[in-house]
Specification:
- With about 230 residues, the chain is of the alpha/beta class.
- It has helices at about 25-35, 50-55, 70-75, 90-105, 115-120, 150-160, 175-185, 210-215, and strands spanning about 35-40, 60-65, 80-85, 110, 130-135, 160-170, 190-195, 220-229.
- It is built from eight helices and eight strands, in the order αβαβαβαβαβαβαβαβ.
- The protein starts with about 20 loop residues before the first helix and ends with a strand.
């Protein structure tokens, strides 16, 4: 889709759909999605996370889970909180389903589709303990910057879904996006900058494939941690 294809009343997509799906992934979607998956659409109704995870616990939303390794590792290391990973990448969703099943992770579930639809239609205001946005598509061309996830309107929506004291943690290896993120997050009245600028890389955030690629290419990694007030 090009900018000319986007109608004025159509939400701007912040992602690409791409990737081939293997037979193993097809089997995972067929067999494991009913146990570990959930939808993002308005027709799915408000999400009852206590029902989804079969318990009451703080919930962390991970936006853009890719192949799922980071979400699986963080959920395994943080058993007292529940993790909901959302992505549009079908092979990644299928791979994460296998990781959940193979590792016996009871505190990790998966949503497939637009994270903003999930936030808008299914997540209740103030219901999340944290939101993670690790290495979102940087849309490096200037004409595509309007597709970036961290913009004022999406940030306002995501902030509204955080509980008071909840955190929005972003990371990127694109310097200009990092600067824009910092400016955008600081402009959101519902957030406060925990570290007063870029944060040191926290030990609890596992390195992602995109992070390793960026470091190998000589790019610096920027972490930003903001808290709902």
């Amino acid at each position: 889709m090009t900018p000319a294809d986007i109608r004025a009343d159509q939400p701007i997509r912040t992602f690409h759909r791409r990737g081939r799906i293997s037979q193993r992934h097809r089997d995972g979607l067929r067999d494991l999605w009913p146990r570990y998956g959930t939808g993002v659409g308005e027709d799915d109704g408000p999400l009852d996370t206590a029902d989804l995870f079969a318990r009451e616990a703080p919930v962390v939303l991970e936006i853009g889970s890719g192949m799922g390794e980071t979400a699986a590792e963080m959920a395994a290391a943080d058993p007292d909180r529940d993790y909901l990973a959302v992505d549009v990448h079908t092979p990644g969703i299928a791979n994460l389903l296998h990781l959940i099943h193979d590792r016996g992770l009871t505190n990790l579930r998966v949503a497939e589709g637009d994270a903003l639809d999930l936030a808008r239609y299914r997540l209740r205001p103030g219901g999340l303990a944290a939101i993670h946005v690790f290495f979102p598509d940087p849309w490096p061309k200037v004409r595509h910057h309007k597709r970036r996830l961290i913009r004022p309107e999406p940030v306002a929506l995501l902030t509204s879904r955080l509980a008071v004291g909840g955190t929005l943690h972003c990371a990127t290896d694109w310097a200009d996006y990092a600067t824009t993120m910092l400016r955008t997050l600081r402009a959101e009245p519902g957030l406060t900058d925990v570290h007063q600028g870029f944060a040191a890389r926290p030990d609890h955030r596992p390195p992602t494939k995109f992070e390793r690629r960026g470091v190998e290419a000589g790019r610096h990694v920027y972490d930003l941690v903001f808290q709902r007030v």
